[in-house]
Amino acid sequence: MLAEPFFNRHPGIWKMLTVTMCMVLLGCLQAHKLQGHVSIILLGATGDLAKKYLWQGLFQLYLDEAGKGHSFSFHGAALTAPKQGQELMAKAQESLSCPKDMAAGDCAELKNQFLQLSQYHQLKTPEDYQALSRDIEAQVQHEGLWEAGRIFYFSVPPFAYTDIARNINSSCRPGPGAWLRVVLEKPFGHDYLSAQQLATELGNFFQEEEMYRIDHYLGKQAVAQILSFRDQNRQALEGVWNRHHVERVEIIMKETVDAAGRTGFYEEYGVIRDILQNHLTEILTLVAMELPRNISDSTAVLQQKLQAFQALRVLQRGSAVVGQYQAYSEQVRTEQQKPDGFRSLTPTFAGILVHVDSLRWEGVPFILMSGKAMDERVGYVRILFKNRAYCAQNEKHWDPVQSQCLPRQIIFYIGHGELGGPAMLVSRSLFKPSVSPQSWKEMEARPGLRLFGRPLSDYYAYSPVQEQDAYSVLLSHIFHCQKGSFITTENLLASWVFWTPLLDSLAHEVPRLYPGGAENGHLLDFEFSGSQLSFSQPQPEQLVPGPGITPMPSDFQVLGAKFRESPLVAAWPEELISKLANDIEATAVRAVRRFGQFHLALSGGSSPIALFQQLVMGHYGFPWAHTHVWLVDERCVPLSDPESNFQGLQAHLLQHVRVPYYNIHPMPVHLHQRLCAEEDQGAQVYAQEISALVANSSFDLVLLGMGTDGHTASLFPQSPTGLDGEQLVVLTRSPSRPHHRMSLSLPLINRARKVAVLVMGRMKREITLLVSRVGHEPKKWPISGVLPSSGQLVWYMDYEAFLG
Ligand SMILES: *[C@@H]1O[C@H](CO)[C@@H](O)[C@H](O)[C@H]1NC(C)=O
Ligand SMILES: *[C@@H]1O[C@H](CO)[C@@H](O)[C@H](O)[C@H]1NC(C)=O
Ligand SMILES: *[C@@H]1O[C@H](CO)[C@@H](O)[C@H](O)[C@H]1NC(C)=O
Predict the structure, then answer these.
(1) 751 lines ligand 3 (CB under 6 A)
(2) 30-39, 289-298, 570-579, 696-705: lowest mean pLDDT where?
(3) Which residue, among 207, 142, 141, has the nearest Cα to 179 in the 3D structure?
(4) Domain Glucose-6-phosphate dehydrogenase C-terminal, which positions (predicted)?
């Protein structure tokens, strides 16, 4: 039998063995010493998750708990027939391991005990469930025990949930006085409605307190530590855990693997549903929620979590950037037998900007990011503090404890990455945290290792005394009825309420393609301003999918398509306008961030009206206060005339947004009570105004249309004015039009950083076709002369104009 020293080291196990030996070998029973019998039923006992984590977790539970008075039995279940199922289950249990410090002989002994307590059941029909229940009762009775409770762990696909739940409720509940706990694995629905439906169905069979929805991230040691850390360091954190001191919070989960082999699942879920809606959101709430007085009180914790959800600002489409690794669509085509032209829109990468509108967090950006095929595998939560200090000394004289100039940050390092495992880091310039010495120890020095820009020695750094697998941690919580680490129905639905609108709005978004791994370079870098997030760099050409697919309503943006060698965005009208509005807003945000202002020149006409409405309705993040609005062209009529382009702009845009009046620049077509008189030099006046206010006379964005005769702005065919030369603004006229016009000249337009040409409607079909073929002939077709000298030209066309 077991060697003496083992018992000295493990008094708990000694007790357990006595109990088990009594039960199993002698049949003698000392019920008064026992706290009752617990049966754990693992549904899906032969599956991957069971094999990788769950059997090990149950074994760990057995090691931890069996010595403390309970007795256990483990029932593996699946649909497979008994004999084959038994074999498969034995395989899944093959690689059970013991804690590192346990002697090999003891380990083998304990494993053997555990396996003897496990048996396989085929669970298919209601009768199977009844039989299982009878088996458990017989066993408990036979051993003279009383039943404490049953845990059913659903490691099965969600479509099987309802059936199993019905069978458990009607045939497999334990008798009076004993508890039932059911453990559910994600996915818990696909969006708000499906999650609600599933929750309602399960609610028919189980009480809320009987259900334990697992988010295994909540069992990861660094994540489980967030609340304890906040609790143990209340005093130190009290003054700084808020918007006055926190610069931003990053919640990151990067994977190097891709989705190959599981594209069936992935196509339906994508990275936001797979990682962000659950894991990263749960972490977000742990950081953002108000700390209850007693963090062991799971009801109070859950209440605060729900309040944190309520404070989340609604996500806009501009709150997200999405990407997809380049090989993904091909993998889907192969694995799902999709046709050749199929291209998936499922994101495998997402960066999201979240705002928590609470007194504590208002204005602090929370960045959530996850992706497959990234350059490294790592997960962490990083709280970066603001820094207003300036240090007069050179950095080499800085003392990491005293220098207020060093970055100040707290990091919950979830795992992998350069540290290899879970850790907790607090900048020495912040404070020395108090941590529970039973669970965390100071890390050994690792010279040369830098994390988040600083050497490890700049941090108070801790790692777990003993690394534990998340499933083991959670199984222990389930056993001890600690509901705080599980997702309640309310919590689940709150999360879906938060994510569903964004998911809907992204459903047709074409993700940016990225090559995968280190080659991603800076391609996925993103930046934010206000509540807008955008990729920092443009999509490079070689990553734009080639031609050859017909645009379908479902993938309406022909990404990478070209018109006259410039990028083309083609879509149905509504989406086109929405895309253009988004692009204008993103350009505005970027310009304001870089230059402090945004110079926008807008055309008149009917096509832009829908665009203006869109900008007014959906773009609260637009930096109107820093935007200058210029006119591309104007009719020679009084500004109050309904024909005036300015009138249209005023009615549809300017009166609805807050552009400072001195940033609005109508064209001076009406001077000295005369309309567009050469002598009044209105064109020169406007040109001077532009030169004075717009750096290098380069507008940040010029929005143009295209007439059926190929005119653009008010530059007309067969009229050379404004097509070349020095003049920035010109007076023009076309024989077929009643009024003279004032217009930006082609050279001025071509100085712009970005020119967008919006072309909509069947009427434009012919000219579109024609212009697609002609070269640079501005005298015949002024639009063909639009070619920014150092800026970018983008065509926005609806399908009627583009395809006819
Ligand atoms: C759950 O089981 C109880 C007891 O057998 C039964 O009365 C009840 O109808 C069941 N619930 C559902 C929704 O089937
Ligand atoms: C905190 O809550 C736990 C669980 O409800 C309870 O057992 C414990 O007594 C509470 N502690 C205090 C100080 O109230
Ligand atoms: C000014 O505009 C011209 C013409 O577009 C361009 O070539 C030049 O690079 C610009 N200079 C600066 C400083 O932006």
Answers:
(1) yes
(2) 30-39
(3) 207
(4) 229-520
